[in-house]
Amino acid sequence: MMSLSRWKVVLVVLATVIGLLLTLPNLLPPAARSSLPGFLPSKALNLGLDLQGGSYLLLEVDTAAIGQERLTNTIEDVRTTLRNEEIAFSDLGQVNGEVTVRITDPAQVSNATGLLRQSIGVVLPSGQKDVVVSGAPDQRIRITFSPDAMQAASRDAVKQSIEIIRRRIDELGTKEPDIAQQGANRIVVQAPGESDPERLKNIIGQTAKLTFQMVDETVRPEDIAAGRIPPGSELLPSEDGYAPSYVVRKRAVVTGEMLTDAQGSFDPQTGAPEVNFRFNGQGARRFGDVTRDNIGKRFAIVLDKKIISAPTIQSAITGGNGRITGNFTAESANDLAVLLKAGALPAPLKVEEQRTVGAELGADAVRAGTISGIIGLVGTAIFMLAVYGLLFGGISLAGLVVNGLLILGIMSFTGATLTLPGIAGLILTLAVAVDANVLIYERMRDELRAGRSLISAMDAGFSRAMATILDANITHLFSAGIMFAFGSGPIRGFAWTLSIGVFTTVFSAVLVSQVMLAWWYRSARPKTLPIA
């Protein structure tokens, strides 16, 4: 155990140098970090919301809206299916969370039921459909959704919302946002360094469901005033500045899901802000077909049930590219492009809680954490030097420095976010690292009292204390794993720092101390140990 093996020396020196290089960017100003040579690491620790300041949002996914949208889409699917088969029907609508329709001809009820069973709904992984089509009195057909399907849709909506929120925040340039699910349908968003919480809320909270729908030009103004809207159409408010509202077909001809790119830009002729977009192959073909078949007619560009533009189709648009014009500012055009590129939320989000942490408060937290860390290290240094002397206490403190360098270096390299609980985890890890040295040194003292030789006592100090050191650190690792798996936000930051510290502690308290003591023993050839 006490042999000065070459591989041990190389490993200790290499780990120390790497830890120092990975930690160095945290000590440099941003300008100096950017000027470092390409072969040197330049990533610094990301500071969390409580250290850097920023915005905190607690959002709730409106899962009830998912069910309502499913009902609306199912009604349109039933209408389209029956009309295509020329089956007369009436009283199509929703009642108590289910879709009902009355078939006019009694002889066609059975045929309509079988047809709807085939065409309505999707097949679940279990092999069953997510809807149940059944007959009802008075020539009616009922379509209900299975509870398992609705629960699965809600779970998927929350997961999808988290990914879309992450993409939207990434487009804003915010570094290391912390986005986590809380409970069944809530999402916590922490955006360090984001100084405009209102813009963040607008970017995150907007559903951004984009559709292209044909304007129903058969509806006259007096029909709108009287509320006579055809069953397959709907009245939507307009923000294009030309009309307060338009009647459009409910069925979208193209949706935002078919977009591959969106960019804020300016009209080359007028200089007005606009949004340029590009469709995928399917969207380009469908958009080309629709514009080719409807030249001279108007189609509406609808965002979250509001019409932002309703241009007249002048010619077929077959290239898959287009632009959205309207009452945009440069910032609103860029924001809309961000939303369209990230994708639409599967359900609306409601802001349940909003907080802003100022940069001054974050700086105070960093200052307090630094002071507490320094006090803890000074207290530890005084104890180790007083109890174990300059040599053995100094070796423990040298291992402590290597441990701190490795923790900060690994966190910087992995892009981890340092929070105030993370600082607490760092201080706790360094204190536990000293415990390992105490175990080793006390074991050496016991062996010397038992009459063993100096080299034998040093060797036994490391070998016999190793089991206890591993047991304590493995227990810490399990605890950190549980906190990381079931915690969120600051708790996970604390657990991550603790997990890294487990590995660096075993390395620094055992291997680094062992190499330094072996080098001292070979150089000094002492007759007694200073801690005897």
Concise overview:
This protein has 532 residues and is α+β, with helices and mostly antiparallel strands. It has 14 helices and 19 strands.
Question: How would the blueprint of this fold be written?
Answer:
Elements: H1 6-23, H2 30-34, E1 46-47, H3 49-52, E2 54-61, H4 63-84, E3 89-95, E4 98-103, H5 109-119, E5 131-136, E6 140-145, H6 147-172, E7 178-182, E8 186-192, H7 197-205, E9 210-214, H8 221-226, E10 233-237, E11 245-249, E12 254-255, E13 259-266, E14 273-279, H9 281-293, E15 299-303, E16 306-309, E17 321-324, H10 330-342, E18 349-357, H11 359-413, E19 417-418, H12 420-449, H13 454-486, H14 490-524
Parallel strand pairs: 1-19
Antiparallel strand pairs: 2-8, 2-18, 3-4, 4-6, 5-6, 7-8, 9-12, 9-15, 10-11, 13-14, 14-17, 15-16
